[in-house]
Amino acid sequence: MQYLTTDDNADMGRVVDQWLHELCQTYSLTQCQQAAFLLGQWAGNGWQWCDGDEYAWVLKSFVNWANDHDIILNWAIPVLLRGWE
Q1: How far apart are CA 45 and CA 31, in angstroms?
Q2: Any idea of the CA torsion for 80, 24, 6, 47, to the nearest 10 degrees?
């Protein structure tokens, strides 16, 4: 199990890169680039909102992927997802 206590370190970058790599095995490069862009907007907005991902598909996908890989995002994201699933 891996615990990430902040989103501003190299470990978070590696986790995002791994998620995108796996995402691109299923989706097109264009779709993966869009997902990366939207996840960057989520991060840039303190994980509170993102234009273009109103239903939080990208955020949910990332958090669910992290959970499936025993990666604990130990800051605000899990709190935001309560009740969304």
Answers
A1: 21
A2: -30
Instruction: Let me know if 65 is exposed, middle or buried by CB neighbors in 10 A (0-12, 13-18, 19+).
Output: middle
Q: Residue 3: which residues within 8 A CB-CB, separation 6 or more?
A: 72, 74
pTM for the model stands at: 0.85
> Is the per-residue pLDDT at 39 higher than 80?
yes
Token reading at 60: 């949910």
Average pLDDT, the chain: 87
Residue 85 has pLDDT above 70, yes or no: no
